[in-house]
Amino acid sequence: METFFNEIFDYNFHCNKKIIEHCLALNTVPPETMRLFSHILNAHHIWNARLLNKPSEYEVWQEHDVKKWADIHYENQRSSFEIVTNADNFDRRIDYENSEGRLFTNTLQDILFHIINHSTSHRGQIAIDFRSNGETPVGLDYVYYKR
Q1: Does the global pTM surpass 0.90?
Q2: Domains of the chain: which residue ranges?
Protein backbone atom coordinates (compact mmCIF):
# COMPACT_ATOMS: atom_id res chain seq x y z
CA MET A 1 0.00 0.00 0.00
CA GLU A 2 2.89 2.35 0.76
CA THR A 3 4.24 1.98 -2.78
CA PHE A 4 0.80 2.69 -4.26
CA PHE A 5 0.29 5.84 -2.23
CA ASN A 6 3.81 7.11 -2.86
CA GLU A 7 3.19 6.71 -6.59
CA ILE A 8 -0.18 8.45 -6.69
CA PHE A 9 1.04 11.28 -4.46
CA ASP A 10 3.97 11.69 -6.83
CA TYR A 11 1.51 11.84 -9.75
CA ASN A 12 -0.58 14.38 -7.82
CA PHE A 13 2.56 16.44 -7.19
CA HIS A 14 3.43 16.30 -10.90
CA CYS A 15 -0.06 17.47 -11.96
CA ASN A 16 -0.24 20.32 -9.49
CA LYS A 17 3.27 21.43 -10.37
CA LYS A 18 2.30 21.63 -14.05
CA ILE A 19 -0.73 23.77 -13.21
CA ILE A 20 1.39 26.04 -11.01
CA GLU A 21 3.97 26.49 -13.78
CA HIS A 22 1.24 27.21 -16.33
CA CYS A 23 -0.45 29.77 -14.09
CA LEU A 24 2.83 31.50 -13.26
CA ALA A 25 3.34 32.02 -17.00
CA LEU A 26 -0.07 33.68 -17.47
CA ASN A 27 -0.52 37.43 -17.39
CA THR A 28 -3.70 36.93 -15.38
CA VAL A 29 -4.86 33.73 -13.68
CA PRO A 30 -8.64 33.34 -14.06
CA PRO A 31 -10.36 34.06 -10.72
CA GLU A 32 -12.12 30.68 -10.62
CA THR A 33 -8.80 28.91 -11.17
CA MET A 34 -7.29 30.94 -8.32
CA ARG A 35 -10.16 29.91 -6.07
CA LEU A 36 -10.14 26.23 -7.07
CA PHE A 37 -6.39 25.70 -6.96
CA SER A 38 -6.10 27.46 -3.61
CA HIS A 39 -8.85 25.13 -2.39
CA ILE A 40 -6.91 22.06 -3.64
CA LEU A 41 -3.88 23.22 -1.66
CA ASN A 42 -5.91 24.07 1.43
CA ALA A 43 -7.84 20.80 1.50
CA HIS A 44 -4.64 18.77 1.10
CA HIS A 45 -3.05 20.76 3.94
CA ILE A 46 -6.12 20.36 6.18
CA TRP A 47 -6.24 16.58 5.67
CA ASN A 48 -2.51 16.30 6.37
CA ALA A 49 -2.95 18.36 9.53
CA ARG A 50 -5.77 16.08 10.70
CA LEU A 51 -3.63 13.00 10.07
CA LEU A 52 -0.65 14.52 11.86
CA ASN A 53 -2.86 15.78 14.69
CA LYS A 54 -1.76 19.38 14.11
CA PRO A 55 -3.76 22.57 13.72
CA SER A 56 -4.45 23.69 10.17
CA GLU A 57 -2.85 26.91 8.99
CA TYR A 58 -5.44 27.47 6.24
CA GLU A 59 -9.17 27.76 5.83
CA VAL A 60 -10.96 25.57 3.28
CA TRP A 61 -11.60 28.35 0.72
CA GLN A 62 -8.76 30.72 1.66
CA GLU A 63 -7.15 32.13 -1.48
CA HIS A 64 -3.39 32.33 -1.94
CA ASP A 65 -1.26 34.37 -4.29
CA VAL A 66 -0.10 32.20 -7.19
CA LYS A 67 3.50 32.95 -6.18
CA LYS A 68 2.93 31.06 -2.89
CA TRP A 69 1.36 27.99 -4.46
CA ALA A 70 4.61 26.08 -5.06
CA ASP A 71 5.76 26.42 -1.44
CA ILE A 72 2.40 25.28 -0.06
CA HIS A 73 2.28 22.45 -2.58
CA TYR A 74 5.78 21.26 -1.70
CA GLU A 75 4.98 21.25 2.01
CA ASN A 76 1.76 19.32 1.38
CA GLN A 77 3.71 16.71 -0.56
CA ARG A 78 6.40 16.43 2.08
CA SER A 79 3.79 15.94 4.80
CA SER A 80 1.89 13.33 2.79
CA PHE A 81 5.06 11.33 2.16
CA GLU A 82 5.83 11.52 5.89
CA ILE A 83 2.34 10.18 6.67
CA VAL A 84 2.60 7.36 4.13
CA THR A 85 6.14 6.40 5.14
CA ASN A 86 5.26 6.25 8.84
CA ALA A 87 1.95 4.42 8.39
CA ASP A 88 1.92 1.05 10.08
CA ASN A 89 -1.70 0.24 9.22
CA PHE A 90 -3.60 1.80 6.32
CA ASP A 91 -6.84 0.32 7.72
CA ARG A 92 -6.41 2.29 10.95
CA ARG A 93 -9.51 4.32 11.72
CA ILE A 94 -9.03 8.08 12.04
CA ASP A 95 -11.49 10.23 13.99
CA TYR A 96 -11.70 13.83 12.81
CA GLU A 97 -13.88 16.90 12.77
CA ASN A 98 -14.86 18.38 9.42
CA SER A 99 -14.81 22.11 8.69
CA GLU A 100 -18.38 22.38 10.03
CA GLY A 101 -17.48 20.74 13.35
CA ARG A 102 -19.13 17.36 12.63
CA LEU A 103 -17.35 14.21 13.80
CA PHE A 104 -16.48 11.45 11.34
CA THR A 105 -14.31 8.34 11.16
CA ASN A 106 -12.57 6.96 8.07
CA THR A 107 -9.61 4.72 7.45
CA LEU A 108 -6.21 6.18 6.71
CA GLN A 109 -6.41 4.55 3.28
CA ASP A 110 -9.75 6.24 2.55
CA ILE A 111 -8.47 9.65 3.60
CA LEU A 112 -5.27 9.40 1.56
CA PHE A 113 -7.21 8.32 -1.50
CA HIS A 114 -9.70 11.14 -0.91
CA ILE A 115 -6.90 13.73 -0.98
CA ILE A 116 -5.87 12.52 -4.45
CA ASN A 117 -9.40 12.12 -5.80
CA HIS A 118 -10.45 15.54 -4.49
CA SER A 119 -7.49 17.19 -6.22
CA THR A 120 -8.22 15.37 -9.48
CA SER A 121 -11.84 16.48 -9.42
CA HIS A 122 -10.94 20.14 -8.98
CA ARG A 123 -8.17 19.97 -11.59
CA GLY A 124 -10.91 18.91 -14.02
CA GLN A 125 -12.85 22.04 -13.08
CA ILE A 126 -9.71 24.09 -13.64
CA ALA A 127 -9.35 22.59 -17.13
CA ILE A 128 -12.89 23.73 -17.91
CA ASP A 129 -12.11 27.18 -16.51
CA PHE A 130 -9.00 27.40 -18.68
CA ARG A 131 -11.07 26.64 -21.79
CA SER A 132 -13.72 29.18 -20.76
CA ASN A 133 -10.97 31.80 -20.55
CA GLY A 134 -9.32 30.96 -23.88
CA GLU A 135 -6.47 28.94 -22.33
CA THR A 136 -5.47 25.45 -23.38
CA PRO A 137 -5.85 23.07 -20.43
CA VAL A 138 -2.71 21.38 -19.14
CA GLY A 139 -2.47 17.70 -20.18
CA LEU A 140 -2.55 15.72 -16.96
CA ASP A 141 -3.60 12.20 -17.94
CA TYR A 142 -2.02 9.51 -15.79
CA VAL A 143 -0.81 7.55 -18.79
CA TYR A 144 1.14 10.60 -20.02
CA TYR A 145 2.75 10.87 -16.61
CA LYS A 146 3.77 7.20 -16.73
CA ARG A 147 5.34 7.41 -20.21
Answers
A1: yes
A2: 2-139
